[in-house]
Specification:
Two copies of one chain form a homodimer. In chain A, β1 (56-63) and β2 (66-73) form a beta hairpin. Chain A starts with a helix and ends in a 7-residue tail after the last helix. Chain A has one domain (3-104): Winged helix-like DNA-binding domain superfamily/Winged helix DNA-binding domain (Arc Repressor Mutant, subunit A). Chain A contains four helices and two strands. In chain A, 58% of the residues lie in helices and 15% in strands. Chain A is an alpha+beta fold. At the A-B interface, α1 and α4 of A face α1 and α4 of B. The first copy, chain A, binds a DNA duplex through α1, α3 and β2.
DNA sequence: ATATAATACATCGCGTTACGATGTATACCA
DNA sequence: TGGTATACATCGTAACGCGATGTATTATAT
Protein backbone atom coordinates (compact mmCIF):
# COMPACT_ATOMS: atom_id res chain seq x y z
CA UNK A 1 0.00 0.00 0.00
CA UNK A 2 1.18 3.47 -0.88
CA UNK A 3 2.68 5.07 2.21
CA UNK A 4 0.84 8.38 1.86
CA UNK A 5 -2.45 6.56 1.64
CA UNK A 6 -1.52 4.58 4.72
CA UNK A 7 -0.94 7.80 6.65
CA UNK A 8 -4.54 8.76 6.21
CA UNK A 9 -5.79 5.50 7.64
CA UNK A 10 -3.45 4.83 10.55
CA UNK A 11 -4.97 7.03 13.26
CA UNK A 12 -8.49 5.92 12.60
CA UNK A 13 -7.42 2.30 12.38
CA UNK A 14 -5.72 2.46 15.77
CA UNK A 15 -8.86 3.98 17.25
CA UNK A 16 -10.92 1.20 15.69
CA UNK A 17 -8.60 -1.36 17.29
CA UNK A 18 -9.45 -0.11 20.79
CA UNK A 19 -13.05 0.80 20.08
CA UNK A 20 -14.73 -2.34 21.39
CA UNK A 21 -12.40 -3.00 24.28
CA UNK A 22 -9.38 -1.37 25.88
CA UNK A 23 -6.13 -2.64 24.47
CA UNK A 24 -2.36 -2.17 24.70
CA UNK A 25 0.49 -1.57 22.27
CA UNK A 26 1.57 -5.02 21.34
CA UNK A 27 -1.99 -6.30 20.96
CA UNK A 28 -3.02 -3.34 18.81
CA UNK A 29 -0.21 -4.14 16.37
CA UNK A 30 -1.28 -7.76 16.16
CA UNK A 31 -4.96 -6.92 15.77
CA UNK A 32 -4.24 -4.41 13.03
CA UNK A 33 -1.86 -6.67 11.13
CA UNK A 34 -4.49 -8.17 8.80
CA UNK A 35 -5.54 -4.68 7.79
CA UNK A 36 -2.51 -2.43 8.09
CA UNK A 37 0.99 -3.27 9.27
CA UNK A 38 2.84 -0.77 11.39
CA UNK A 39 6.02 -0.75 13.41
CA UNK A 40 6.24 -0.20 17.14
CA UNK A 41 7.89 3.18 16.72
CA UNK A 42 5.00 4.26 14.54
CA UNK A 43 2.35 2.98 16.92
CA UNK A 44 3.74 4.59 20.05
CA UNK A 45 4.04 7.89 18.22
CA UNK A 46 0.41 7.60 17.17
CA UNK A 47 -0.80 6.63 20.63
CA UNK A 48 0.95 9.63 22.15
CA UNK A 49 -0.55 11.91 19.50
CA UNK A 50 -4.06 10.54 20.04
CA UNK A 51 -3.66 10.93 23.79
CA UNK A 52 -2.57 14.55 23.40
CA UNK A 53 -5.61 15.12 21.20
CA UNK A 54 -7.84 13.57 23.89
CA UNK A 55 -9.03 10.85 21.57
CA UNK A 56 -8.02 8.19 24.04
CA UNK A 57 -7.13 7.86 27.70
CA UNK A 58 -4.41 5.74 29.26
CA UNK A 59 -4.34 3.52 32.33
CA UNK A 60 -1.41 1.48 33.57
CA UNK A 61 -2.13 -1.96 34.92
CA UNK A 62 -0.02 -4.91 36.00
CA UNK A 63 -0.17 -8.09 33.97
CA UNK A 64 1.95 -11.16 34.81
CA UNK A 65 4.23 -9.08 36.98
CA UNK A 66 4.95 -6.36 34.45
CA UNK A 67 3.24 -3.16 33.53
CA UNK A 68 1.01 -2.63 30.58
CA UNK A 69 -0.51 0.61 29.35
CA UNK A 70 -4.14 0.14 28.42
CA UNK A 71 -5.71 2.57 25.99
CA UNK A 72 -9.37 3.54 26.14
CA UNK A 73 -11.23 5.43 23.42
CA UNK A 74 -12.95 8.70 24.40
CA UNK A 75 -15.87 10.63 22.94
CA UNK A 76 -13.48 12.63 20.79
CA UNK A 77 -12.01 9.37 19.53
CA UNK A 78 -15.46 8.11 18.54
CA UNK A 79 -16.07 11.41 16.82
CA UNK A 80 -12.83 10.99 14.88
CA UNK A 81 -14.19 7.75 13.47
CA UNK A 82 -17.48 9.41 12.59
CA UNK A 83 -15.61 12.18 10.77
CA UNK A 84 -13.80 9.51 8.80
CA UNK A 85 -17.15 8.13 7.70
CA UNK A 86 -18.01 11.56 6.33
CA UNK A 87 -14.68 11.74 4.53
CA UNK A 88 -15.40 8.35 3.03
CA UNK A 89 -18.14 9.73 0.81
CA UNK A 90 -15.68 12.20 -0.69
CA UNK A 91 -13.08 9.50 -1.10
CA UNK A 92 -15.51 7.34 -3.05
CA UNK A 93 -16.25 10.25 -5.39
CA UNK A 94 -12.53 10.74 -5.91
CA UNK A 95 -12.10 7.02 -6.55
CA UNK A 96 -14.69 7.19 -9.31
CA UNK A 97 -12.97 10.25 -10.79
CA UNK A 98 -9.59 8.55 -10.77
CA UNK A 99 -10.74 5.24 -12.20
CA UNK A 100 -13.30 6.29 -14.77
CA UNK A 101 -12.28 5.39 -18.30
CA UNK A 102 -12.45 7.82 -21.20
CA UNK A 103 -15.85 7.45 -22.81
CA UNK A 104 -16.03 6.71 -26.52
CA UNK A 105 -16.75 9.62 -28.87
CA UNK A 106 -19.77 8.24 -30.75
CA UNK B 1 -11.28 16.22 4.45
CA UNK B 2 -8.56 15.06 6.80
CA UNK B 3 -5.23 16.32 5.49
CA UNK B 4 -3.42 13.01 5.86
CA UNK B 5 -6.09 11.30 3.83
CA UNK B 6 -5.78 13.99 1.18
CA UNK B 7 -2.05 13.31 0.91
CA UNK B 8 -2.75 9.80 -0.27
CA UNK B 9 -5.08 10.95 -3.02
CA UNK B 10 -3.38 14.04 -4.44
CA UNK B 11 -0.79 12.48 -6.74
CA UNK B 12 -3.20 10.04 -8.28
CA UNK B 13 -5.86 12.73 -8.63
CA UNK B 14 -3.47 15.00 -10.53
CA UNK B 15 -2.60 12.11 -12.83
CA UNK B 16 -6.30 11.48 -13.40
CA UNK B 17 -6.77 15.15 -14.31
CA UNK B 18 -4.32 14.83 -17.23
CA UNK B 19 -5.18 11.28 -18.16
CA UNK B 20 -7.62 11.96 -20.99
CA UNK B 21 -5.92 15.02 -22.40
CA UNK B 22 -2.81 17.04 -21.73
CA UNK B 23 -3.38 19.90 -19.35
CA UNK B 24 -1.59 22.73 -17.56
CA UNK B 25 -1.34 24.00 -13.97
CA UNK B 26 -4.19 26.40 -13.72
CA UNK B 27 -6.62 24.12 -15.53
CA UNK B 28 -5.67 21.12 -13.40
CA UNK B 29 -6.55 23.04 -10.25
CA UNK B 30 -9.91 24.04 -11.66
CA UNK B 31 -10.71 20.55 -12.91
CA UNK B 32 -9.81 18.99 -9.58
CA UNK B 33 -11.72 21.52 -7.51
CA UNK B 34 -14.99 19.54 -7.33
CA UNK B 35 -13.06 16.57 -6.00
CA UNK B 36 -10.07 17.88 -4.10
CA UNK B 37 -8.95 21.46 -3.58
CA UNK B 38 -5.28 22.27 -3.66
CA UNK B 39 -3.16 25.41 -3.77
CA UNK B 40 -0.80 26.36 -6.56
CA UNK B 41 2.25 25.80 -4.40
CA UNK B 42 1.04 22.28 -3.71
CA UNK B 43 0.29 21.52 -7.34
CA UNK B 44 3.61 22.69 -8.74
CA UNK B 45 5.41 20.67 -6.09
CA UNK B 46 3.42 17.61 -7.13
CA UNK B 47 3.95 18.17 -10.85
CA UNK B 48 7.69 18.41 -10.33
CA UNK B 49 7.67 15.27 -8.24
CA UNK B 50 5.66 13.33 -10.81
CA UNK B 51 7.96 14.54 -13.57
CA UNK B 52 11.03 13.40 -11.64
CA UNK B 53 9.34 10.04 -11.17
CA UNK B 54 8.69 9.84 -14.94
CA UNK B 55 4.96 9.64 -14.43
CA UNK B 56 4.40 12.58 -16.73
CA UNK B 57 6.26 14.53 -19.39
CA UNK B 58 6.27 18.27 -19.95
CA UNK B 59 6.04 20.38 -23.07
CA UNK B 60 6.04 24.16 -23.25
CA UNK B 61 3.73 25.80 -25.75
CA UNK B 62 2.64 29.34 -26.47
CA UNK B 63 -0.94 30.31 -25.83
CA UNK B 64 -2.26 33.84 -26.39
CA UNK B 65 1.25 35.25 -26.38
CA UNK B 66 2.42 33.65 -23.19
CA UNK B 67 3.94 30.32 -22.31
CA UNK B 68 2.14 27.39 -20.83
CA UNK B 69 3.54 24.11 -19.62
CA UNK B 70 1.48 21.18 -20.77
CA UNK B 71 1.68 17.95 -18.85
CA UNK B 72 1.26 14.55 -20.49
CA UNK B 73 0.80 11.29 -18.62
CA UNK B 74 3.30 8.49 -19.30
CA UNK B 75 3.12 4.71 -18.98
CA UNK B 76 4.48 4.94 -15.46
CA UNK B 77 1.75 7.44 -14.64
CA UNK B 78 -0.92 5.08 -15.93
CA UNK B 79 0.64 2.33 -13.85
CA UNK B 80 0.46 4.57 -10.78
CA UNK B 81 -3.29 4.78 -11.25
CA UNK B 82 -3.52 1.02 -11.69
CA UNK B 83 -1.57 0.54 -8.45
CA UNK B 84 -4.06 2.80 -6.74
CA UNK B 85 -6.85 0.53 -7.90
CA UNK B 86 -5.09 -2.37 -6.22
CA UNK B 87 -4.70 -0.35 -3.02
CA UNK B 88 -8.40 0.43 -3.16
CA UNK B 89 -9.34 -3.16 -2.31
CA UNK B 90 -7.27 -2.94 0.86
CA UNK B 91 -8.75 0.44 1.70
CA UNK B 92 -12.26 -0.94 1.44
CA UNK B 93 -11.36 -3.74 3.84
CA UNK B 94 -9.95 -1.18 6.26
CA UNK B 95 -13.08 0.92 5.91
CA UNK B 96 -15.21 -2.04 6.94
CA UNK B 97 -12.90 -2.72 9.90
CA UNK B 98 -13.09 0.88 11.06
CA UNK B 99 -16.84 1.30 10.68
CA UNK B 100 -18.14 -2.05 11.83
CA UNK B 101 -20.28 -1.78 14.94
CA UNK B 102 -19.81 -4.01 17.95
CA UNK B 103 -22.16 -6.97 17.56
CA UNK B 104 -24.63 -7.74 20.37
CA UNK B 105 -23.73 -10.52 22.80
CA UNK B 106 -26.84 -12.75 22.59
C1' DA C 1 22.00 -23.98 31.87
C1' DT C 2 21.95 -20.92 28.10
C1' DA C 3 20.74 -18.75 24.06
C1' DT C 4 16.94 -17.09 21.31
C1' DA C 5 12.54 -15.32 20.55
C1' DA C 6 8.48 -13.03 22.11
C1' DT C 7 6.43 -9.52 24.88
C1' DA C 8 6.29 -4.51 26.09
C1' DC C 9 7.39 0.25 26.05
C1' DA C 10 10.19 4.27 24.48
C1' DT C 11 13.23 7.88 21.89
C1' DC C 12 16.02 9.91 18.07
C1' DG C 13 16.98 11.34 13.50
C1' DC C 14 15.89 11.35 8.68
C1' DG C 15 13.31 11.93 4.53
C1' DT C 16 8.81 13.06 2.46
C1' DT C 17 5.19 16.04 2.02
C1' DA C 18 1.29 19.97 2.03
C1' DC C 19 0.86 24.59 2.14
C1' DG C 20 0.96 29.58 3.38
C1' DA C 21 3.62 33.43 2.08
C1' DT C 22 5.72 35.58 -1.38
C1' DG C 23 7.42 36.91 -6.04
C1' DT C 24 7.13 37.72 -11.20
C1' DA C 25 4.57 38.70 -15.39
C1' DT C 26 0.69 39.24 -18.71
C1' DA C 27 -4.30 39.94 -20.08
C1' DC C 28 -8.80 41.78 -19.37
C1' DC C 29 -12.29 44.79 -17.60
C1' DA C 30 -14.41 48.70 -15.10
C1' DT D 1 -5.74 53.43 -13.02
C1' DG D 2 -6.59 49.58 -10.44
C1' DG D 3 -8.41 45.23 -9.52
C1' DT D 4 -8.99 40.42 -10.94
C1' DA D 5 -7.87 36.30 -13.45
C1' DT D 6 -4.32 33.69 -15.59
C1' DA D 7 0.24 31.30 -15.12
C1' DC D 8 4.38 29.60 -13.11
C1' DA D 9 7.80 29.31 -9.30
C1' DT D 10 10.45 29.08 -4.64
C1' DC D 11 11.16 29.10 0.42
C1' DG D 12 10.36 27.89 5.13
C1' DT D 13 7.71 25.36 8.38
C1' DA D 14 5.32 21.78 10.61
C1' DA D 15 3.53 17.06 10.60
C1' DC D 16 4.34 12.43 10.07
C1' DG D 17 6.11 7.29 9.28
C1' DC D 18 9.66 4.51 10.36
C1' DG D 19 14.27 2.32 10.80
C1' DA D 20 17.62 2.04 14.29
C1' DT D 21 18.39 1.57 18.80
C1' DG D 22 17.72 0.87 23.82
C1' DT D 23 15.79 -1.36 28.18
C1' DA D 24 13.60 -5.12 30.61
C1' DT D 25 10.96 -9.33 31.51
C1' DT D 26 9.08 -13.94 30.24
C1' DA D 27 8.76 -18.12 27.52
C1' DT D 28 10.77 -21.58 24.64
C1' DA D 29 14.17 -24.29 22.52
C1' DT D 30 18.77 -26.42 22.36
Amino acid sequence: MDIQLKRGLLDVCVLAAIRNEDSYGYKIIKDMKPYLELSESTLYTILKRLETANMLSVRTAEHDGRLRKYYHITGDGIKRIEDFKDDWKEIETIYRFVTKEEQEHA
